[in-house]
Design goal:
The protein is an all-alpha fold and 231 residues long. The protein has helices spanning 8-39, 43-89, 91-103, 109-133, 143-167, 173-196, 200-230. The longest helix has 47 residues, at 43-89.
């Protein structure tokens, strides 16, 4: 049996899950270790907190991605079933819907009719699902692949802030971790923008600002907790 090839869209979705998993790993664990560093200077406590956050985040991200993709997949399957019934009972209506959609792009009635006939004769289900719902019936993203991508990428992203806050000299570890995380978030924000065809500058700025706010807030809370505990 010939193995079905993974489409470009499916590969991009898996890559998206990897990038977002890495981004969340960086941000989540950075928030934890920076916050704990605000409360204590004990490197072991900071390290254990980061490890706990990494493990919890990895499981949470993997399960969340699995559930999310499965939900989307179920919705797409229901849409396919509806279209099968629609083509069986109201083929002409579906034909006219596709033709009118082609006409709305500015092409002539004759050309729209010809294009619709060719597309519907080739594969009516694929054509109508694509035009009505905007997805390809042969390009369902695997929930297992998405979950595994997140399971690998989250701890990979977590390593940067965890190592920086644990291994760097105590005098510079907070500011150095802060800078390292901001650089990493700028990179993941840029890659995410490329994959989603979004504005790259806005994506990077949004990622960096959210990361800065997260680390500043968690550090101040940790600092406050440390002052109260020592007072």
């Amino acid at each position: 049996m010939k193995k079905k090839k993974t489409s470009l869209a499916q590969k991009i979705n898996i890559l998206r899950a990897s990038v977002m998993g890495s981004n969340d790993g960086i941000l989540s664990v950075a928030g934890i270790v920076i916050g704990v560093a605000g409360a204590t200077t004990d490197s072991f406590s900071i390290f254990i907190s980061g490890i706990a956050g990494m493990i919890a985040g990895t499981v949470s991200m993997a399960m969340g991605e699995y559930v999310s993709v499965n939900t989307e997949k179920d919705s797409q399957r229901r849409a396919v079933m509806r279209q099968k019934n629609a083509l069986k009972n109201n083929y002409d209506d579906e034909f006219n819907f596709v033709k009118n959609k082609y006409k709305s792009t500015g092409i002539s009635e004759e050309l729209a009719n010809k294009a619709t006939k060719e597309m519907m004769n080739k594969d009516a289900l694929v054509t109508t699902v694509r035009e009505r719902f905007g997805f390809n019936v042969s390009e369902f993203t695997s929930p297992y692949a998405a979950a595994i991508a997140s399971m690998i990428s989250f701890p990979t992203g977590s390593i940067l802030p965890l190592l920086a806050i644990t291994l760097l000299p105590s005098k510079i570890k907070i500011i150095a971790t802060f800078i390292a995380v901001i650089i990493a978030l700028a990179i993941t924000g840029y890659v995410a923008a490329i994959l989603s065809h979004a504005n790259r500058g806005r994506s990077v700025a949004r990622n960096v600002i959210s990361g800065m706010l997260t680390m500043i807030v968690t550090y101040l809370i940790g600092l406050l907790v440390g002052i109260i505990s020592n007072g």
